[in-house]
Amino acid sequence: MKIIVTGGAGFIGGNFVHYMVNKYPDYKIICLDALTYAGNVETLEPVMNKENFMFVKGDIADRKAVYSLFETEKPDVIVNFAAESHVDRSIENPEIFLRTNVIGTSVLLDACRKYGIKRYHQVSTDEVYGDLPLDRTDLFFTEETPIHTSSPYSASKASADLLVQAYGRTYKLPVTISRCSNNYGPYHFPEKLIPLVIANVLNDKTVPVYGKGENVRDWLYVEDHCAAIDLIIHNGKAGEVYNIGGHNERTNLQVVKTIINALGKSEDLITYVTDRPGHDMRYAIDPTKIKNELGWEPATTFDEGIKKTIKWYLDNKKWWENIISGEYQKYYEKMYSKR
Ligand code: NAD
Ligand code: DAU
Prior knowledge:
It is a single chain. The chain has helices at about 10-25, 65-75, 85-90, 95-115, 150-170, 195-200, 220-235, 250-260, 290-295, 300-315, 315-325, 330-335, and strands at about 1-5, 30-35, 55, 75-80, 120-125, 175-180, 185, 205-210, 215-220, 220, 240-245, 250, 270-275. It is an alpha/beta fold. The chain has a single domain, classed as NAD(P)-binding Rossmann-like Domain (Rossmann fold), CATH 3.40.50. Helix 1 (about 10-25) links the parallel strand 1 (about 1-5) and strand 2. Helix 2 packs parallel to helix 4 and helix 6 (about 195-200) runs parallel beside helix 8. 2'deoxy-thymidine-5'-diphospho-alpha-D-glucose binds near residues 85, 127, 181, 196 and 283.
């Protein structure tokens, strides 16, 4: 089996590449990644010299490059992680989100039509469902929840989902979509809440909490997400959407305090800053379908996962210090200095 993993030099794609290369020595795993600010070849270093792995630098919105890769490699499966993924950046500059997340997805789908494919899998997000109220803890996102987006990022991901479903119906492409809640774990880019907090606390820098810190996210350890996608591409039914989440809801303040306390630092580091415009209140996934149909359940609780994640950031300082000492400094200044 030959699998193209797009966005494999990013956080979740990178973890998925490691997972698949190690689990399936007989498969060929090809990572296609444009190496944007969020892509990092160092993330692929553990697999770079493995015989069943190949890295190709390229843009999913570049039709010629994508067709040429399909022509030479004739892949069986595509797993599309490649995306602009940060909500705050989408609020600053939506356009690149449309190019990569919508046009990029359409180019991949066209390549699948042209060259034939056994499965196209779209890695989507629970953000396409919008948000849930804080005071209705009985409500969860199911696969039937209507799409109702809040940010340019989530609107671009929802648009991509609609295209994937349209290609499934109109051209009979064998497509699946997964919508996962917030991931955390190794190789997470430090602009996102959990790695940003770990890095700032380790450097005795203040920790910016948006609004009152009462927004709720449903955290999933990244390896559990990888295992779910592995199951979907092998056993999932074409045309279906699968929600992925593990009932690990926490307020942002709970997450921040857990990290500060685990690192033995003072909660005085917490600084409340101006809220994110359009900030979604609560995400919470109902994972019943994937559990009943594919037997998937998360293996890692939030308490275990956050300990493993903090340990990884302590053991791999070089990986994230290289990032925060470079171009990222300018981003941090721009986003947080006057907030
Ligand atoms: P990330 O930002 O860490 O990585 C994205 C990767 O895509 C990078 O390696 C980047 O170089 C690459 N990329 C960007 N534009 C590209 C292009 N035009 N062509 C080729 N490669 C390109 O993102 P992530 O957090 O790992 O998220 C991966 C996917 O999972 C995204 O589609 C995201 O919407 C989805 N998702 C993320 C989460 C989460 O909590 N992080 C949860 C649910 C779903
Ligand atoms: O739910 C899945 C989504 O999770 C993915 O689709 C996105 O790609 C991914 O980035 C993530 O989106 P969020 O917006 O939930 O993640 P982020 O880490 O940016 O923020 C998590 C919460 O923490 C959110 O409520 C905003 C808040 N926050 C974030 C940052 C960066 C802060 O309070 N302070 C911060 O500095």
